[in-house]
Amino acid sequence: MIDYHVHTPFCRHARGTLEAYAARAVEEGVEELCFTPHTPLPGFPRGGGDLRMVPGDLDAYFRGTARLRDRFPGLRILAGLEADYYPGYERYLEGLLAGYPFDLVLLSVHFVAAWPGENWLFGYHFPEKSPAQIYREYLAALKAGIATGLYDCVAHLDLVKRPGAPLLAHCGGDVEEVLSLCASRGMSIEVNTAGLRRPVGEAYPDPEIVARAVERGIPIVTGSDAHSPEHVAHGFAEAYGRLKTLPRARLARYRRRRIADSRPRHRAGKPL
């Protein structure tokens, strides 16, 4: 198993030490753990300043992950980043990514520029808009992020969804466009189990989107979106159980932002 979406104290809203996350990963049988703190966004106008790193954290973050590799030699520990796409920050993000040896950069959208106020994805309220309109505005931001070429993997693709209102039922064509862009860019998508801990009650994205991605040859990474050590690998029995029903599913393992292992399960000789 791989858990490629794990937050850190540097995010300021996650609790527990780096060592505690790594120890939990070993307990759960995780082979590879990728830390993905939220990228700094200096001067970001939409709030959330207590939800991400500041630029001065990056050196300490890399020192911390290097130290863990010595303490947990049986666990492959990667240093990644969850980088929000927000228009106007492309050049800043490009420079940040060039300055550090990241293994994986997750694309996420938590704030949509077209929306007023903060209106982050877990709290939006637009009674005047249909679900399809809201979803399309979110997916437009996701497509713009993919088009920058700055990212490796789309995290929690349908994070905007509300219970009982799947994206495919409201804007299936836009979802297909997102998957087409991912395939053309050689990106992976994440199966994120955090939704199992939230009111939506299912992983991100929903199983039908995952199946369509697999049919397009898009590789998969798995992530718990852990914000405390006990979240590491949460829901992975269900996630990997579903992936095993997709014969063409490929699990991507990253090294310095390149896929190091993306083998079909039935040829790999072991389960995903």
Q: How would you describe what is shown here?
A:
The model is unreliable at 262-271 (pLDDT under 50). This protein is 33% helix and 15% strand. Helix 6 (207-215) links the parallel strand 6 (188-192) and strand 7 (220-223). The relative contact order is 0.15. The protein has helices at 18-27, 58-71, 90-98, 131-147, 167-185, 207-215, 236-243, 265-268, and strands at residues 2-6, 32-35, 76-84, 104-108, 153-154, 188-192, 220-223, 253-255, 258-261. The strands form two sheets. Strands 1-2-3-4-5-6-7 form a seven-stranded parallel sheet. A two-stranded antiparallel sheet has the order 8-9. The protein has one domain: TIM Barrel (Alpha-Beta Barrel), CATH 3.20.20.140. With 272 residues, the chain is α/β, with parallel strands linked by helices.
Largest beta-sheet details: 7 strands, parallel
Task: Say how many strands there are.
Answer: 9
What radius of gyration results from the CA coordinates? 17 Å
Classify the fold: give the CATH topology.
TIM Barrel
Strand order of the largest sheet: 1-2-3-4-5-6-7
Query: What pattern of helices and strands is seen along the backbone?
Result: EHEHEHEHEHEHEHEEH
Poorly predicted spans: 262-271
Strand content: 15-25%
Mind telling me which CATH architecture this is? Alpha-Beta Barrel
Estimate the mean pLDDT confidence: 92
User: How many angstroms separate the termini?
Assistant: 7 Å
Q: CATH homologous superfamily, by name?
A: Metal-dependent hydrolases
Instruction: Return the structural class.
Output: alpha/beta
Helix segment count?
A: 8
